[in-house]
TrEMBL record:
Phylogenetic placement of the source organism: Bacteria, Bacillati, Bacillota, Bacilli, Bacillales
Stored SMART domains: TGc (SM00460)
Gene3D superfamilies: 3.10.620.30
Pfam families per record: Bact_transglu_N, Transglut_core
Protein name: Transglutaminase family protein
Domain of life of the source: Bacteria
Amino acid sequence: MKIEINHVTRYSYAEPVSDSVNEIRLTPRTNYRQSCYHHEVWIEPVASLFTYEDYFGNRVHSFSVSKPHRELAIRTKATVVTQDQNRDSLPKVSLREQQELMRSERLQNRYIEYLLPTAYTEITEELSAYTTGFEVGPEGYYEWAKRLSEGIHQDFTYDPDATHVHSKVSDTLRLKRGVCQDYAHLMIAACRSIGLPARYVSGYHFVGDLQGGSADFEQASHAWVEVHVPGTGWLGFDPTNRAEVGWRYVKLGHGRDYKDIVPVKGVYRGTSRQTLDVAVDVRKLEE
C-alpha cells in the first residue's frame, strides 16, 4: 500500500532564542516490509542538514540555528510503500530449538542491547509477577508474544493524561493506564525478563479508513514493539491496538527504548517559555 506522511513540528518561544542544536529521526526505513521512495525535510529558519546513521541504523538529520529566532519549524514529507508479511512463509523451529537458541552465546551476544533492562524498561518484582501470567506453551514464543500483546491491551486502559514522557514500567503497572509508549515499554520489559530480545519502534499508524469500533482510537504518530522470535526473526506487535504489524504501519526507527528514538530533540540558549505544536497527517494514496 502506498502511504504519504506529512509531519510538522513547530516550537514557538516567548522571547528570541539562539544557538539551537537539534537532531531529528523522521526518515522512514527501507526494509523487508516497507520501502521509502521519497523523503523531504524543511527547516525554518533555513539551516544546513548533516545526515548520518546512528548505532541502531536509524537515519538522523542534525542541524543548528545560531541566529536569534522566535519560532522553529521542522517539516517532513515521505512516501512509503508497505505490505503485509506472510507469517506462514516464515521459518519456524520447535520450542526446544527456540529455547536452545535463546540460551546460546551467539544470540545473546548479537542482541545484548535488546536483552538488558533500561531506565524505561526496568525489571521489577511487579513486572516479573505480571509476566508469569503468560506461560510459554508448546507452540513457542511467537504465540506467547501475541498473547502478551493482547493481554496488555486488555489489562490496561489507554489514557493520555495518566503518564508522561518519562514514565517507567513501574508507573504503568501501578496506574494500569498509559499510552502507546507505556504499552511498548511494558511489553519490552516482559520479553526481556524471560530472555527474549525486544526493541522499541517509532513510526506512524494509518487508521484513516477504519470506522466505528474497528479501532479504539486514532493516533498517527505511534510506537510499538518488535520481538526477536528465535529461529524466525523480528516480528512486530502493537499492544496498544491489539494488532500485529502489517501494511498500516510505517516504521521510522528502533532502539532499546524511547530515549534512543526520540523523533525530535535538541537544546538552545534562551527562555524556557515555549509552546510545542505537532501535526501529523497519514493518508493512503491511490494505487
